[in-house]
């Protein structure tokens, strides 16, 4: 599966992405695969993927809302991961249908493989960081040259983060931030620059940080963190 900004011309992604969960963040992808329905196997294109849902394009309906299908999701090694999903909505568009499905995952191995795929997709778009999903991560982080400063993290993506600090910080100031992971591993050391500040209703300043280019290991670690947060 490749992550891409190219979509079938018949599909209005902006409209179709307004799925049943407003906080759901999908990664734009493009992969032709199969869906098994009560009426047999159908060819579909996955055009959006998150930890909870997928946005599909198909030339005809796959079923009715709440009906379950089995979707083959291409994963590492050229294999297909079979995931059960329920149809949440199906909308007519030019030359086909935009179909939102919600995953039904009870198997921890299936969940792990899907999370791994999302982390790799997130980490694999070095030229598209501006489109990366931002996720809420309410945690205390260390910042500053020695890591002595403390801030309340608000949101994070592969492109940057926002955090609440007590001090004013000059625009374009270089800042080191250390972010804890969810899996109990080593924290992620990140470097960025202040892109802006605004007053916070809770006191202090909401500070936007744009990351400097990430090396491979940091990008993979941050991609895995964002993927984990998307599953919460």
Distinctive features:
single chain, 232 residues, alpha+beta, Thrombin, subunit H, 2 domains, 6-stranded antiparallel beta barrel
Percentage of residues in strands: over 45%
Total domain count: 2
- Helical element count? 3
CATH H-level name of the largest domain... which superfamily? predicted glycosyltransferase like domains
How is this structure best described in words?
The chain is an alpha+beta fold. The chain folds into 2 domains: 2-123, Thrombin, subunit H (Beta Barrel); 132-230, predicted glycosyltransferase like domains (Thrombin, subunit H), CATH 2.40.10.220. Helix content is 15%, strand content 46%. It contains 3 helices and 13 strands, in the order E-H-E-E-E-E-E-E-H-E-E-E-E-E-E-H. The chain has helices spanning 13-16, 108-123, 216-230, and strands at 2-3, 27-37, 40-49, 53-58, 68-74, 80-93, 96-103, 135-143, 149-156, 160-165, 174-179, 188-199, 205-211. The strands form 2 sheets. The chain has a 6-stranded antiparallel β-barrel. A hairpin with a 2-residue loop joins strand 2 (27-37) and strand 3. The chain is elongated, with a radius of gyration of 19 Å. It starts with a strand and ends with a helix. The model is unreliable at 2-22 and 126-130 (pLDDT under 50).
Would you summarize the structure shown here?
This protein is α+β, with helices and mostly antiparallel strands and 232 residues long. The chain has helices at 13-16, 108-123, 216-230; strands at 2-3, 27-37, 40-49, 53-58, 68-74, 80-93, 96-103, 135-143, 149-156, 160-165, 174-179, 188-199, 205-211.
